[in-house]
Amino acid sequence: MTDPVPPDVVPRSGITADVIRLLDAAQHQPVTVTIPGEVLADPDGVPVGMTEPRSVTGTLTARVARRDLTDTGLTEQEVPHVGLT
User: Fold this and answer.
1) Rounded to whole angstroms, how far apart are CA atoms 57 and 46?
2) What is the number of other CB atoms lying within 10 angstroms of the CB of residue 64?
3) Which of 58, 41, 59 is nearest to 50 (CA)?
């Protein structure tokens, strides 16, 4: 069996500790998402305009895999608002 490659040689893929911290800070905060309008076409299929975009507001809830938390070196106490799976 070989030793794992140090993270400074090959960075790990996936979620980072910084992203998990950001998710923790944003947990249960209102989030507004804008959904673009749809393209309107004439009978020949040529675009002639767009419908209005619409905005939807909801609450951010994020869940992170316990393994990702462990892999980043964070503890549950450091990010208490993120749900764990």
Assistant:
1) 33
2) 19
3) 41
Residues 12 and 25: their CA atoms lie apart, in Å, by: 23
CB 75 within 8 A of CB 22: no
Position 2 pLDDT exceeds 80: no
Alpha carbon 34 to its chain centroid, in Å, reads 16
Q: Quote the CA–CA distance of 51 and 47 in Å, as a whole number.
A: 11
Give the helix ranges, DSSP H, for the chain. 17-26, 66-72
* Whether residue 1 has pLDDT greater than 60: no
| Among 20, 3, 10, CA closest to 72 | 20
